[in-house]
Amino acid sequence: MTQYLDFEKPLAEIEGKAEELRAMARDNAEMDVEKEAAALDKKSRDLLKTLYSNLTPWRKCQVARHPERPHCKDYIAALFTDFTPLAGDRNFADDHAVMGGLARLDGRPVVVIGHEKGHDTKSRIEHNFGMARPEGYRKAIRLMELADRFGLPVVTLVDTPGAYPGKGAEERGQSEAIARATETCLDLHVPLVSVVIGEGGSGGAVAFATANRVLMLEHSIYSVISPEGCASILWKDAGKTQEAAAALRLTAQNLKELGVCDRIIPEPLGGAHRDPDAAVAAVGKALIAVMAEFDKADASKVRAARRQKYLALGQKGLAA
């Protein structure tokens, strides 16, 4: 069953009525309800188009967090061949919130790394809801360094509410691990392409997305803090969450204007969760096109261009 977001409740009623009619027809072969059901289908499509034509930043947050959006595992399974997972940070443990390994993208050998949230209660607990611990970032560092050693491009799939804030993670050097992962991103001599497929939360996302090219799905978000966290710190009022979402400029469209996002990947009508296969295919097409930009690229220029990209962020605002 489709999980509807708060603002999709009118849509749920229409689609529910259409399904009720068809269920009645299945029980009674003499009933002909297709005309009425088709009219409801058209009404729901029109409403869906209206709802998604001008989503507010807060509604974008809700769509980006939808549990039925395709996750890292789905993208790897559909887009990458010969995937060989590599586990552990060779120091403490294997963090299941981060997955990665060697693979091929359209025949091109790459290293792919991503956050995995899980699809149901059991897998979400196993993957810690996509919130990585220090060993997750150290695993990512190990894989990026491996890619650099063998001249393999790196693809990262970002989908995390942020790094895990638990006591154990802090004791094992969470902030140092994030900082070193970000430094490793900047230091690579191979192309690094990141795709924000859902949530890009705080330093936990920056540690994977300090890339030559940052791609974002149309309804994904990327911000220094969650709207809820921002509202609680600035206003000490959870009721200010929508206001915080707008102020954070966290949508793909905002970040394209600011130069943080390089390319927006369109989602199916109603969001990636409505048609996961189409969303995954769109990401694959965009990734292949962007990777082709780095064919025969000079390693020193790839590294210098990445560093300059981040040094230049915010220069327009300073000049003004």
What does this structure look like?
- With 320 residues, the protein is α/β, with parallel strands linked by helices.
- It has 2 domains: 6-54; 62-319, 2-enoyl-CoA Hydratase, Chain A, domain 1.
- It has helices at residues 9-27, 34-53, 57-64, 72-79, 121-126, 134-150, 167-171, 174-187, 202-209, 227-234, 241-247, 252-258, 276-292, 299-311, 315-319, and strands at 80-85, 98-105, 108-115, 154-160, 192-201, 213-217, 221-223, 263-265.
- Strands 1, 2, 3, 4, 5, 6, 7 and 8 form an 8-stranded mixed sheet that branches.
List keywords for this structure.
320 residues, alpha/beta, 2-enoyl-CoA Hydratase, Chain A, domain 1, 2 domains, 8-stranded mixed beta sheet, 15 helices, 51% helix, globular
